[in-house]
Write a structure and sequence with these properties.
The complex is a heterodimer.
Chain A (H helix, E strand, L loop, with lengths): L3 E11 L4 E11 L3 E5 L6 H8 L7 E6 L2 E2 L5 H7 E4 L11 H7 L12 H13 L15 H14 L4 E5 L7 H17 L3 E5 L3 H7 L2 E6 L2 E6 L1 H4 L2 H8 L3 E5 L6 E5 L2 H4 L7 E5 L6 H9 L3 E8 L3 H8 L4 E4 L7 H13 L2 E4 L9 H12 L4 E4 L12 H11 L3 E3 L2 H8 L4 H6 L1
Parallel strand pairs in A: 3-8, 3-9, 6-7, 7-8, 13-14, 13-16, 14-15, 16-17, 17-18
Antiparallel strand pairs in A: 1-2, 1-4, 4-5, 9-10, 11-12
Helix pairs in contact in A: 3-5, 4-5, 13-14, 14-15
Chain B lengths: L27 H19 L14 H34 L12 H16 L7 H21 L7 H25 L2 H11 L8 H20 L1 H7 L3 H6 L4 H23 L5 H13 L3 H25 L8 H19 L8
Helix pairs in contact in B: 1-12, 2-7, 2-10, 2-11, 2-12, 3-4, 3-5, 3-6, 3-10, 4-5, 4-10, 7-10, 7-12, 8-12, 11-12, 12-13
Classes of the chains: A alpha/beta, B mainly alpha.
Chain lengths: 425, 348
């Protein structure tokens, strides 16, 4: 572990009438990328202000690279910490180059910059991709460009730690991604410690080595994104129902609200069994639940993204071991589920020898007089040796199974005419 | 003085694109224009007066008297103008408000009340220092009151600050009116004439004290210029950039108030100098206070000397109070700034 950059020891701090931080303890090592998260009013910004010496703690101490923040001279402090504010506002007409040069003012004397100051400012501007904007007026830049210029100003200070106060979340996604990329480069290449205060949990989890979760002035969780982004913890801290799942590409935890529950229509007392896999069922599950159906699913392999989605949505589901063909026990259980369902939907799922048996279950359901919907284009997804899936699908179609090609269309056909009765009649 | 009005995104600098390293110093042509025109204008002002245009006949004693009168007015104008204009520059930077200046903020009104009290009641107590000291004391009280009224938590808005300045200013002038109405004829005349704003030189002692105060305050503010640049980005940003923000804010506000109070005690209520000149200087030299503070001082002095020459020579033998001239020029200017906030000097 590198030596500590920022250490809070039992810090309580706040404003005259309102104490905010209560006994906050943590240590950030040099070179770390740490993000502070928490709901509004949890003390994130107060923590940053305390770390920069703007607010004096009523209890405890704040150490910056081994020295008490309040024992530092203002200029020494500015050579250690660079801060990018939520929004840098310059009422006067400074150009971008002048704004960045202001970042050198803690280094230079009264008389103004020398060549090393210009070099440093130039490097900072190139690094943050604002060099081409150097003669533009700061106020006339877009929000993203302004934030990059503010970052250049902080970089020109040549600090050892950069702190950002909600500086990114309000930007458009292209701009926020660019600023984040710059931050990661700064952290990796220049070994500058980064402390990012953010109310955007996903953004924080995407980029930080470590998350610190604040709740009402206390540090309630401090660890890797996987350790902090836990459903029950976040739901409690944010006081609302939240879901955490893994991003299928990066594996980062991603938190979303549970608005589906509010979106759901009144239940229609119909159960549909969905045959899917490989991610083809996720949207189907969600839409069917919203429309008020009860949903079951299977057979799916464990760890399949559909299996994850079914778990997250509390959908009863028959599971088989990962990467294994569907075995007789699972088939038996799925057969029971299909027996209890009022209809079967086959999603846009590829078929191979391992999961072909699912299609046989659909055939059984059709034989039992239950409506079956099959996604169009099964020929292209048939990986069985003798094209058995396509053949089965054709057999089903001639026996009265419906074909569907878009989820919206499928929902329209499922819902308004109460199709189950129609089909039974 | 014309203001740039086209709306290119870069500040017009003649040569368009500056190569990096960026010279934070202003454009050379403009600096030259300023350096050449200021002495020229000052010389012209010495040729103007109610006795006619041109140098008076130095051979006669009356000619010498006229010239020494003009010279006295000239130094008064330079001092008062420099003080008011520098004060305006600093108020605008610290309060981050393009409309801030001692007159609009009510600081002049407060200083006026203090000065009137000193003239009518104090009767030369404490000698030459008494008048500026009382004026300063009341000006500080007024500034605290104005800021307190405007401050509803956080930094007061441009408009609430101006509004409370106007209110406090009105209260001060009512109290002055009351004092004047209860004073004897001589006192009444002194105060009314002084309130209209005029640059009749006081005693040598008074002038000397004022000169010392004004020069040292302007030099002190010039030393603080890099910190003033940072404070225009807000107090927190200044702190992050290694400025002792509380100390610089407090001391520069006090120095600006001291300048305004000294100017008021010397020349009475002269409005808008602290508004017009800083804006024009910013348009000429850019927003860097290392240039802006001295430029405002020199520009402010020149502007007031010119206004005074105009006031003395347009309707001879009647002399218009110089405060009337600056207000006639400054009022419309205030409205323009209010509407546009000045493309190159200030942006939103």
């Amino acid at each position: 572990m590198n030596r500590p950059a920022l250490v809070f020891r039992g810090v309580s701090a706040g404003y005259k009438a309102r104490p905010v931080l209560q006994g906050v303890d943590f240590s950030i090592a040099e070179g770390e990328f740490v993000s502070v998260i928490g709901p509004n009013g949890s003390g994130k910004s107060t923590m940053l202000k305390t770390a920069t010496g703007l607010i004096r703690p009523s209890k405890g101490s704040v150490e910056l690279f081994g020295r008490d923040v309040f024992s530092l001279k203002p200029r020494e402090r500015a050579s250690l910490i660079g801060v990018v504010p939520q929004k840098l506002e310059s009422p006067m007409a400074f150009t971008v180059a002048e704004i960045v040069m202001i970042g050198r003012s803690s280094r230079g004397g009264w008389g103004g910059p020398d060549s090393s100051d210009y070099d440093s400012a130039e490097r900072a501007m190139i690094y943050t991709n604002v060099f081409d904007l150097k003669d533009r007026l700061f106020n006339e830049l877009s929000a993203g460009e302004q934030q990059r210029a503010a970052l250049a100003m902080a970089l020109a200070q040549e600090p050892r730690i950069i702190m950002l106060d909600e500086s990114i979340a309000h930007l458009d996604i292209n701009h926020s991604q660019e600023v984040l990329r710059i931050l990661m480069n700064i952290n990796r290449e220049q070994k500058i410690t980064v402390l990012l205060v953010s109310h955007d949990l996903n953004l924080a989890a995407q980029i930080a080595d470590r998350l610190m979760l604040m709740e009402r002035g206390r540090l309630v969780s401090n660890g890797s994104p996987g350790e902090v982004m836990r459903e029950e913890l976040l739901s409690r801290v944010y006081d609302c129902e939240l879901r955490v799942r893994k991003d299928p590409y990066s594996g980062n935890p991603v938190v979303t609200g549970a608005l589906d529950m509010a979106l759901r229509r009144s239940p229609v007392q119909k159960r549909l069994h969905v045959i899917s896999g490989g991610g083809s069922g996720i949207e189907l599950f969600r839409r069917l639940l919203i429309e008020g159906f009860d949903v079951t699913a299977g057979v799916l392999n464990r760890l399949d993204s559909d299996a994850e989605a079914a778990r997250a949505l509390d959908i009863p589901c028959v599971l088989e071991q990962p990467f294994s063909p569907v075995g007789p026990e699972a088939v038996e259980e799925a057969r029971r589920m299909v027996g209890e369902a009022d209809g079967v939907i086959v999603g846009v799922v590829p078929f191979g020898s391992g999961n072909l048996v699912n299609l046989e279950l659909a055939a059984e359901a059709l034989k039992a007089g239950k409506p079956v919907w099959i996604a169009a284009g099964i020929d292209a997804r048939d990986y069985t040796v003798d094209r058995a899936a396509a053949a089965t699908a054709l057999r089903l179609r001639t026996a009265g199974a419906h074909e569907w090609s878009g989820i919206h269309e499928l929902m329209a056909r499922l819902k308004p005419e109460a199709p189950m009765q129609q089909d039974k009649a | 003085m014309s203001l740039p009005s086209d709306s290119k995104a870069t500040r017009p600098d003649g040569d368009g694109c500056r190569p990096f390293p960026v010279k934070v110093s202003p454009n050379r042509n403009r600096a030259l224009l300023f350096v050449v025109s200021v002495p020229l204008l000052l010389c012209v002002s010495l040729l103007l007066g109610p006795s006619g245009i041109g140098l008076p006949d130095m051979a006669t004693s009356s000619g010498q008297a006229i010239f020494s009168l003009r010279l006295g007015r000239f130094f008064m104008g330079m001092m008062v103008g420099a003080a008011l204009s520098t004060s305006g520059t600093v108020f605008q930077a610290i309060l981050r408000n393009p409309l801030a200046e001692p007159y609009v903020l009510g600081v002049s009104g407060g200083a006026g009340l203090g000065a009137a009290l000193s003239i009518l009641v104090g009767g030369g107590l404490l000698g030459a220092v008494g008048l500026p000291l009382t004026a300063f004391f009341f000006a500080v009280l007024t500034l605290m009151a104005v800021y307190g009224i405007a401050n509803q938590g956080g930094i007061p808005s441009v408009y609430s600050l101006i509004l409370s300045g106007v209110i406090v200013s009105a209260i001060c002038s009512s109290v002055i009116m009351f004092l004047v109405s209860t004073a004897d004829i001589e006192g009444m005349h002194t105060v009314v004439w002084w309130m209209l704003g005029n640059l009749q030189p006081g005693s040598w002692a008074e002038q000397f004290v004022s000169l010392v105060i004004i020069t040292s305050a302007i030099v002190a503010l010039w030393v603080l210029a890099p910190a003033l640049n940072l404070l225009t980005l807000g107090r927190e940003m200044a702190h992050y950039q290694g400025v002792n923000a509380g100390f610089v804010t407090m001391s520069s506000l006090l120095l600006a108030t001291l300048l305004a109070a000294t100017a008021v005690s010397m020349g009475g209520m002269i409005g808008f100098v602290g508004l017009i000149v800083p804006h024009v200087m910013r348009a000429l030299f850019g927003p860097d206070h290392r240039w802006l503070v001295p430029a405002s001082a020199i520009g402010g002095g020149t502007f007031l000397v010119l206004c005074d020459s105009l006031a003395r020579s347009v309707m001879p033998p009647i002399e218009i109070p110089v405060g009337v001239v600056t207000a006639l020029a400054g009022g419309p200017f205030f409205l323009i700034v209010l509407r546009r906030k000045m493309k190159y000097a200030w942006t939103d």
